[in-house]
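About this split. The held-out portion is used to measure sequence recovery: a designer receives only the structure tokens and must propose an amino acid at every position. Recovery is the fraction of positions where the proposal matches the reference. Here is one held-out target exactly as it appears in the evaluation file.
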């Protein structure tokens, strides 16, 4: 029934100027949902203190109810009531992180307060908070005067949108208004760090790196196991979003880890009509298949900026399968690798050195144990939950 209502809704896309921010603020105060640009990816916003409004986000996205949302604020004063009163040591950590990274692409998990709607926290006793830097996002929060719950503005399971056109492709007829603020600068979602455990823990890597967090907090930041590995059957995710297969295009993506010559040899041997290479800029002439690029090999920030658009471009060009060049995992590269791993449902193939590629068997691959043969990645793909 909801779908019927949503499909008849008219969706307008307007430039994200001051008048648009005021209109969005009014809609949000009236309990509606609006798509807004942020510096990371586009989000679908709702008044975080209004449970019914927040529930509409979950319906529009088709998002599982147990996956909590981030509350977006435009000032530290807005933390009041959103979080529980913070003990001095925790308040000190928040102050240091805020001074270094807010406004910006960092989300902090804190004990929840009474003002945030239950739907935002999805049953947890914690709340995720972030102060975005995008001027349009800030203008909309200010116009509404309340914290805004805002997940990425994609249909659940598809790549996060980094342009207004990508939001429209997923959300046409499902919300009344999209503010167009141009392409997102960062391109991957915010870094998520939990301050609610015995030690800070990185739950989702992003543009703000683990090294930067450690430098500011002055203590080690643990890495959640869910960042690089698929959750095992029955395991609970600290960040519920990590248990879902995210960011996936319709094309079946496989990461090939190895040199460019080894990648070229593998794709030449394995490629079929409908196959694409998801490669770095400038590599196309060396490759035997049609290519979509995602940044330069030596530029992780450029890769982050381009990745989600590239995943959508694969679908637009009708790719059936895509073989992806493997990004580095240092600094911002960890965020790129984390998103690509999920797009690939954790399929990773270790390539033999290029010289040996021709000598390897038809699959040309070594599995994780170093024996020849195509490998499903260490974790395999069975049991992966799609949303
Ligand atoms: O950059 C971003 O963070 C974008 C823009 C729109 O701000 N938003 C975004 O939201 O990526 P979403 O809902 O797609 O991702 C939020 C992530 C999910 O993985 C969710 O499970 C996690 O944050 N999260 C939210 N609340 C949490 C909590 N209380 N404890 C642990 N994880 C939480
Ligand atoms: Mg998302």
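Reference sequence for scoring:
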């Amino acid at each position: 029934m909801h779908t019927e209502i949503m499909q008849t809704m008219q969706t307008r896309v307007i430039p994200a100027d001051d008048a648009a921010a005021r209109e969005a603020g009014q809609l949000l105060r009236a309990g509606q949902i609006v798509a807004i640009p942020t510096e990371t990816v586009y989000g679908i916003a709702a008044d975080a203190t209004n449970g019914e409004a927040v529930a509409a986000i979950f319906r529009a996205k088709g998002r599982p109810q147990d996956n909590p949302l981030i509350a977006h604020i435009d000032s530290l004063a807005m933390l009041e009531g959103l979080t529980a009163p913070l003990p001095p040591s925790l308040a000190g950590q928040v102050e240091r992180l805020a001074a270094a990274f807010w406004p910006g692409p960092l989300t902090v998990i804190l004990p929840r307060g009474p003002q945030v709607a239950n739907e935002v926290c999805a049953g947890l006793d914690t709340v995720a908070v972030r102060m975005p830097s995008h001027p349009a996002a800030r203008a909309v929060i200010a116009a509404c005067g309340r914290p805004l719950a805002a997940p990425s503005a994609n249909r659940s399971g598809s790549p996060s949108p980094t342009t207004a056109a990508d939001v429209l492709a997923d959300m046409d007829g499902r919300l009344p208004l999209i503010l167009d603020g141009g392409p997102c600068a960062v391109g991957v979602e915010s870094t998520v760090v939990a301050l609610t455990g015995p030690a800070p823990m990185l739950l989702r890597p992003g543009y703000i790196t683990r090294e930067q967090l450690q430098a500011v907090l002055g203590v080690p930041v643990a890495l959640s196991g869910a960042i690089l590995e698929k959750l095992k059957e029955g395991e609970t995710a600290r960040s519920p979003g990590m248990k879902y297969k995210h960011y996936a295009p319709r094309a079946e993506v496989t990461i090939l880890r190895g040199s460019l010559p080894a990648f070229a040899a593998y794709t030449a041997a394995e490629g079929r009509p409908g196959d694409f290479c998801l490669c770095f800029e400038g590599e196309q002439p060396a490759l035997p298949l049609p290519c979509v690029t995602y940044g330069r090999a030596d530029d992780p920030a450029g890769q982050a900026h381009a990745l989600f658009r590239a995943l959508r471009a694969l679908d637009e060009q009708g790719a059936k399968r895509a073989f992806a060049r493997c990004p580095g995992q240092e600094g911002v590269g960890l965020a790129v690798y984390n998103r690509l791993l999920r797009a690939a449902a954790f399929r990773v193939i270790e390539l033999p050195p290029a010289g040996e590629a021709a000598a390897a068997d038809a699959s040309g691959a070594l599995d994780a144990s170093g024996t020849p043969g195509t490998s499903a990645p260490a974790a395999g793909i069975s049991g992966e939950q799609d949303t």
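Annotator remark: The domain at 247-386 is CATH 3.40.50.11030 (Rossmann fold).
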